[in-house]
Amino acid sequence: MNYAAVIKLVGRGRDSARAIGRDEARELFGDMLDDRVPCVHLGALLLAYRLKGESADELAGFLDAVHARLPFVASPEAAPRTVVIPSYNGARTMANLVPLLALSLAARGVPVLVHGVTNDESRVTSAAIFTALGMTACTSGDAAARALASERVAFMPLGALSPGLDRLLDLRWTLGVRNSAHTVVKMLRPVMNALGLVSVTHPEYLATMREYYAAHPADTLLMRGTQGEAVANARRAQAIEWLHDGRAHTVIEAGQGSALALPELPSIDAASTAQWTLDVLAGRLPMPAPIARQVEVIERIATRRDAPREIAA
Predict the structure, then answer these.
(1) Are 98 and 59 spatial neighbours (Cβ–Cβ below 8 Å)?
(2) Hey, CA dihedral for 211, 312, 115, 112, is it positive or negative?
(3) Could you give the angle at which helices 204-215 and 56-67 cross, rounded to 10 degrees?
(4) How are beta strands 240-244 and 112-116 bridged, if at all?
(5) What whole-number distance in Å separates Cα of residue 216 and Cα of residue 288?
(6) Whole-Å CA distances, 246 to 69, 157, 234
(7) Cα separation of 83 and 212, whole Å?
(8) What are the chain's domains?
(9) What is the C-alpha to C-alpha distance for residues 178 and 169, in angstroms, rounded to an integer?
(10) What is this structure's pTM?
(11) Could you read off the pLDDT tens digit of each residue along the chain, which spans 313 residues?
(12) Which helix (DSSP H) or strand (DSSP E) does residue 129 occupy?
């Protein structure tokens, strides 16, 4: 591939840059994943996409490349559809409640695969909280499938899912900014026919995600992230859309499920969050209303395909 020609096309600045097609994007991202792109070209490409943003077709090509190299995880038999939760941001100012969401769904019999990073010096990851809860990370698709079948919940590090994508993600610490890999990881489907949770940080990506899933239907719950994570804000519920069959429906309105009294949340460190999570799961502390509402809606969609109005009721 002529990387300089691609850079010339996508690197002309936000207003003048042009997108490449799906096939070319698949080849380009495949080369990135396989570490074939020279360092100078790779840095230029990642920064160019950081400025331009990815088109829906480019994201489709990027995901084609990743999924072609991904070890898929088998869903448990005779269970609701598996829910896939990406976790790549963690806690910065408020406790990370992704493990609470995952374990609450698992307690209802809904299988949940969480995938994400294991280390982030600036934030508290879901991996750290799962470790504090006594959970062992799954380092293969077979191990994750066994955990889903027996415990209904599994955590899989990105390095075990896609070493190439993990390497691209780590370039954030070299380049100083995020890159396309940070968008792609939130769209991964390591489980066939899964219900995916997708969160975005920047509002313009909501439109990009709607466009992508309209052209490439896959059951998805889309939301503005809580500190970037796909869990409802325990104190200020945000809207959640259900994207399916090329359509979009709001299944949780902003503020729905919020309580007048703000919940008492733990400190952001992994040990405190883990203990608080156990207390909520055991009923010793109340579940934050927005997360309870999110759990309810996810369970309904994962268990059966109701009409949107019935799901939201």
Answers:
(1) no
(2) negative
(3) 60
(4) unpaired
(5) 33
(6) 26, 30, 30
(7) 19
(8) 3-67 (1.20.970.10), 83-312 (3.40.1030.10)
(9) 8
(10) 0.94
(11) 999 999 999 999 778 899 999 999 999 999 999 999 999 999 999 999 999 999 999 999 999 999 999 999 999 998 899 999 999 999 999 999 999 999 999 999 999 999 999 988 889 999 999 999 999 999 999 999 999 999 999 999 999 999 999 999 999 999 999 999 999 999 999 999 999 999 998 888 999 999 999 999 999 999 999 999 999 999 988 999 999 988 999 999 998 777 667 788 999 999 999 999 999 999 999 999 999 999 999 999 999 755 454 555 4
(12) helix 126-132
Joined together, the tokens standing for residue 22 give 């799906």
Which stretch of DSSP H or E encloses residue 91?
A: none
Determine the Cα–Cα distance for residues 28 and 71; give it in Å rounded to an integer: 21
Using alpha carbons, list the distances in angstroms from residue 147 to 6, 34, 135: 42, 29, 10
Do the Cβ atoms of 113 and 156 come closer than 8 Å?
A: yes
